[in-house]
Amino acid sequence: MPNRRFADGEVVMGRWPGSVLYYEVQVASYDDVSHLYTVKYKDGTELALKESDIRSQSSFKHRKSQSSSSSPSRRSSSRSRSRSPGRPARGRRRSSSQSREHKDDKKKTIQESNLALLVLVCLSKPSENNTRRYNGEPDKTERNDTSCLILEQKSKPDLEIERVLEQYSLRPRKEEKKKEEIYSEKKIFETIKTIEKTSPKTKELEFGGRIGTFMLIFFLPATVFYLLLMCKQDDPSLMNFPPPLPALESLWEARMFGLFLLWFFLQALFYLLPIGKVVEGLPLSNGRKLQYRINGFYAFVLTAAAIGTLLYFEFELHYLYDHFMQFAVSAAVFSLALSIYLYIRSLKAPEEDLAPGGNSGYFIYDFFTGHELNPRIGSFDLKYFCELRPGLIGWVVINLAMLLAEMKIHNQSMPSLPMILVNSFQLLYVVDALWNEEAILTTMDITHDGFGFMLAFGDLVWVPFVYSLQAFYLVGHPTAISWPVAAAITILNCIGYYIFRSANSQKNNFRRNPADPKLAYLKFIPTATGKGLLVTGWWGFVRHPNYLGDIIMALAWSLPCGFNHILPYFYVIYFICLLVHREARDEHHCKQKYGLAWERYCQRVPYRIFPYIY
């Protein structure tokens, strides 16, 4: 086994993969098996480098001293090499036009070199948007250091050219004639494709890695079935564990599985209708943009018309309540079959189509998180379709079925006030999501996570059957509340919805057009990606104000169920845990994506979700 050359904590110069540039790094650790050094850059990025890609700082200083010591001799030799009086002046008769052409060619060559270097510096560090914020300009005492540059904004390209040319001595003697030549989109795009022609392996495993994801494949369905069984008990106390288990044969009903298939393909039919606008998603790693048809709200309206027609012809929608467990089992079986299909087809997918978070090479982990980023059958995007349609709209239909079941079981002419509140609050949430469907294209579910068991089970089982837990609970455990209490709960839900919607709208409007005069009051920190981090408005209050609104709404959905049991509040507990996990993911990815700019943002906005608490 070869001996390591560099010790932990030693400051060295590390070459960035895919480039010829060296940056100051600190050795963090060394792997004896792979013989790779884990080094940390000044902006916090950690990478594994080979020993051949690392050099000591003394070698760089030695080269610089050699260069500076040779300069006087070169200058003196050039001065002593004067033309002999008898030697003819060869170059004097060259025409002035030829001289200008020669200078123009030389200038063009230098400009192309500047372009390649600038794009390389901007794009060589891989991240979600393929850009990275670098360390700041060195102090006056460190002008010879080869540390990275801070690319402050896309809107200031002249400043970045000046910095790159000054540090790497590529400045032409005369100013460039055309800035458009430097920023040729064709050359930049070709450089991006060259750097990103391969999809890197997933190194950081989430959810407990292989063991954690293996356990979640069994734990998630078990949790859903446990909650549904508990809601059916006369006393759904957590102390009554385990609940009496039904016979296995009673959990499966072919009619319910057929009903679920009918529901799924009906929503697929609505998705394929040529109504609604077509928009482009964010650019993929190869620069391509997928197209998406935005017609989720139209699908909701058509579904409402279909359900209304069934009720007009006296179809017993409360049948879902009597066979709710069988319906959930059918959805779970379908989601498992869909996950297996997705993983098998992902094995033949091109490397560039794989998900950044689901390309670990481990079967269980990739199966759970999703191996392929955007699996499509023709133009039918499976992940995008399942994200909002079958589960989210199905949630509203299930709530309606529970409302009708409550009226029938308790012989009521009208639904109870708590049931009305739960249905109304959650209906508002779903309609808002479908109305603002385009905003989902920028979420991590679409841009980062693959489509595997996690999203398939979450979209088709967890959302419709766990999110409807309050309505399912109220059917068997009616609760009475007064009108003043109902009014207070309604105000609480409105506050949560206002924070949720206004925060998301503020972010989406700023992303679309930061120069909008209506947003002139917003202040932001520029980043290397060309985007800005808002430090005023809702996003200057806490880092994730939309999560704060989500949690307030979740509490308002559970309060109508009373306080006799904790079961209806499972959704609140789950939602807090989910959002804290998502917040941790967001923090990690934003740290990688924005570098030092994110650290500055965290200093300006110290609270993550709950002001003055967390």
Automatic annotation (TrEMBL):
One annotated GO biological process: cholesterol biosynthetic process
Pathway stated in the Swiss-Prot or TrEMBL entry: Steroid biosynthesis; cholesterol biosynthesis
Record key words, sorted: Cholesterol biosynthesis, Cholesterol metabolism, Cytoplasm, DNA-binding, Endoplasmic reticulum, Lipid biosynthesis, Lipid metabolism, Membrane, Nucleus, Oxidoreductase, Phosphoprotein, Receptor, Steroid biosynthesis, Steroid metabolism, Sterol biosynthesis, Sterol metabolism, Transmembrane, Transmembrane helix
InterPro entries: ERG24_DHCR-like (IPR001171), Lamin-B_rcpt_of_tudor (IPR019023), Sterol_reductase_CS (IPR018083), Tudor (IPR002999)
Membrane topology: Multi-pass membrane protein
Subcellular location: Cytoplasm; Endoplasmic reticulum membrane; Nucleus inner membrane
UniProt record similarity statement: Belongs to the ERG4/ERG24 family.
Protein name (Swiss-Prot/TrEMBL): Delta(14)-sterol reductase LBR
Gene that specifies this protein: Lbr
